Structure formats: C-alpha cells, structure tokens
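Pipeline run #58 for the internal structure catalog. This entry was flagged by the ingest filter as a single-chain record with no existing model, so it goes straight to prediction. Upstream metadata was stripped on purpose; only the residue string is passed forward. Reviewer on rotation: M.T. Logging verbosity set to normal.
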Amino acid sequence: MEQWTEVRRRVLTGKLSKHAACREYDISWHTLEKMLAHEEPPGYRQRQPRHKPKLEPYLPIIHEILEGDRQTPPKQRHTATRIFQRLCAEHGYDGCYSNVRTTVRAWKLTTQEVFLPLSHPPGQAQVDFGYAYVDLAGERQQLALFVMTLPYSDALYIQAFPRECTESFQEGHKRAFEFFGSVPTRISYDNSKVAVAKITG
C-alpha cells in the first residue's frame, strides 16, 4: 500500500515519468496504469446499493412523509423511529427498523440545503481545478490547473498537473501554502471532484 501511494504521488504530480516509474519500481505498464486509476489497491467493491425488497413498496410513503415535514416546525417533524411506527401501524410494514433509518438518513443527506457565505474576511481561500491544453514534446495534452485564490487580497496561485486527483490536490495545497507563506483559516471548494463527493442542488 505504501509503494502504491508513493508511485501515484510521484507520477501524478509530474515528478516521475511513467517509463521511469516502471523501471525504478520494477512494475509492468499494466500494473502502473492500474495504480494510477485507483487511489488504493482495488478489492471488492459494491457497485450498486443492496436492494431492500420489503421496504421498496413503502419508499413513496416515506418520501411523502419527509416532504410534508419540510412545511412543519423542526420539533414536529418525523424521526426515523416515528416513520417506522407509522409504516407498521398504518401500512402493514413488517420489515426491520434499520432499513427505514438508513433510507431516512440518505434522503435527508441528499435534500439538505448548503449555504456558503459570499463575504471573504482576511485569511480565507478558495480552491478549484481548471483545464488547459498545452503542446509538450510536439504532442497536445490536457493539463489540470490547481488554483488557490485569497479573495480578500486577490492573491493567486496556479500550478499545472497531469491530472486532477488526490495527489495533485494535496501537492497543490502544499505548494500554495509555501507560496503564500501561511495556511488559510478557511478554504472553500468549488465543486472539485476530489473534494466534493456529490452535488445536491
């Protein structure tokens, strides 16, 4: 695992070419491509959520209850326990409570609103990735541009990487902090796929 991380970091931040990595670490090209495609050695991965056949017919009822709660005061809204009790008493549900709780939690996570302040006091930063095409060794390539800005002072740091990934994300932060000579007190991320798991609105 340690070598896997080291190879990814050095290649994806441009410190080591792919051919040099194969020679230095004595790995095949196929193995290197697999390393670059996965942040950690791939094992078993559940591609789709497990089906909950007993609960599926009741999902519209759960969503209707939760949607209705949007118009009620917070203290009067349904908890997962109360929804489970209503499903059993009013609709004949005979499944387990944990499935109801998981469904309620997932619904709330995907529907909650997120607000970011528009004012930027001193010490706050914003980070995003952009893209640009460049000609390297006679070949046109797309590079990922790590961009960190300090809105209060309009200070700017940009660095190009072979691609947008965890390693370039971390390396970009490290070098930006060195460039600015300090670490921001707060950093906002503009939907970077490395930092943001899912956009809900």
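catalog note: Helices lie at 2-12, 18-25, 29-37, 59-69, 80-91, 97-111, 166-180.
catalog note: The beta strands are 124-136, 139-150, 155-161, 186-189.
status: ready for reviewer M.T.
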